[in-house]
Structures are given as C-alpha cells and as structure tokens.
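Dear colleague,

Thank you for sharing your sequence with our group. We've completed the structure prediction you requested, and as agreed, I am returning the results in plain text so they can be pasted directly into your records. Please verify that the sequence below matches your submission; if there's any discrepancy, let me know and we will rerun it promptly.
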Amino acid sequence: MIDEKLEKVLNSCRVDNRAAQKEIYEFYYGFIFSIVRRYVGSFEESKEVTNDVFFKIFTKINLYQQGTNFKGWITQMAKRVAIDKYRADLNKIKTNEKDEIPDTSERFDIQWLNKMDIEEKILLIQKLSPAYRLVFNLYVIEQFSHEEISQLLNISTGTSKSNLAKARIQLKALMIKYQYV
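Please find the predicted structure tokens below.
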C-alpha cells in the first residue's frame, strides 16, 4: 500500500470507517499472522491472536503518528499482543520446571535451524513449551538481551537464560526426533 493511500485509509480508520478497517485487515492479515505464529502455539490460536491484534490496532489507531512507519508500528503491536497472551495464559499453564528434557550430548547449534526452510522452523519452534518458545523467539529471532526479556516478561534474567537453554535442548531433541540432524 503506497504511503498516500495508506494515510488516507488510516484517517478513515480513525473515524471507525468499517470499509477502511477491512482494507487494512485484508492487506496486513498475512503479515501480522506470520509474526503472531512465531509466538503462539497453535494455528487456531494464532488466528485468534491475529484478530486480537487487529482489534487493538483499530482501537489504538489514534496513537499511530501519521507519517511514521505503520508496518513497524503494527509489528510492535503484534509482538505485544502475543506477549500479553502469553502472560494471560501463564497463570493457566504454570510451566513445569521439571519438563521432560531428553538428554542430548551435543550442544544445540543454531546453524541446524538455518538449514531448514521457514515453515519447518516455525512448526518446530511451535512445539516448544510456551515459556521456552517466547524466550527463544525474543532472544534468537528478535535479538533482545536477557535483561530486556526479563523486564518485558517480568521474570528474572536467570529464568530467561534458563528458559533459553531449555528451549535449545528441546529444539535439539525435536530436530533429532524429526530427523533434521
């Protein structure tokens, strides 16, 4: 969507124009879904969270500063909504620190993931437990520091490091199970 048209459509969204909202929704749905998919466990849940993102976009559209990077703004919105979903589910899930983690003698090598196509990577990362998946995404993909992750998720830096280590162990075990290594 070119900038002039985008700004016109966004201005219409600001006055709750449903046709303009539909246009934004249809244009950016795949983009938002791909971001949410990295953070959320299932395909169906990803669709639900994607819709939550659009609800938040349309209710907070007045906070978007005209002329700035809209795609960047909605990217951050998608990440925040996915993280908020994780926080809301945290009380339900209560990650068990004694998860069964297979013993793998070799250390996880991120290069193994780089050899896989994107859909395989996403499916594999989706199999991680929610806490591990979130920290893995934030640290490896988004390149947040452990300090930033601890502040964002309200966990200790040590927990962030521990969850990343366990995510890598789980990923290695999954890659062996599905014969990617």
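Summary note from our side: The two ends are 41 Å apart (CA to CA).

Kind regards,
the structure core
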